[in-house]
Amino acid sequence: MPEDIKKETIDNETAENKAEEIEIEGADEESTQTAEETKDTDVNGTESEDDALTDADAKADDKSDDKSDEKKGLFKKKKKDKKDEQIEELNDRLKRQMAEFENFRKRSEKEKSQMFDMGAKTIVEKILPVIDNFERGLAAVPDDKKDDPFITGMDKVYKQMLTELDAAGVKPIECVGQEFDPDFHNAVMQVENDELESGTVAQELQKGYMYKDSVVRHSMVSVVQ
Length: 225
Description:
Blueprint (H helix, E strand, L loop, with lengths): L2 H76 L3 H58 L9 H19 L2 E3 L12 E7 L9 E6 L2 E3 L2 E4 L1 E6 L1
Parallel strand pairs: 2-6
Antiparallel strand pairs: 1-4, 3-6, 4-5
Helix pairs in contact: 2-3
């Protein structure tokens, strides 16, 4: 081959090799830039993720702080002052004393009432024989002397005593014709009576009296057999 042709061939091969080297170098530079950009992007992404995590942690810390503050506030509200505790203690003591005083007042009134009733029954028991004597004396007065002023006066005194006893709660026990009741009657004898049923009170021998709901004296009676 001629030398000129050889040179041109060598030159062309050299130029092609250089072009390939340049292309390879360009590709390497582009890949290097792409890798650097990717690295930058990763770094930026990592930084943004770290920032997001940091913000989330900060918010969580803020919430936990808020909750702790709220709990502290609740504990502060629940915790009572010594003055409030003393006031509640004094109020409770006052209520207890008032309840005890009310119970004492009721108990005292009940005891007073019972003592008064016992005293009244005792007086009534002592007055009843006087009433019996009035009744016996007035029953023994003959019919022609019932208009005598003395007898009339004694009868008025007797009726006045019965009126006062009735106002005080003393009442006679009804017994004649009633069924015999041991709570009110005291049977001293038995009689025969065709008009009344067996166990019925036939006659009142001594009048019985009640004071309010209690028996002062039982009626002395005779009962049909």
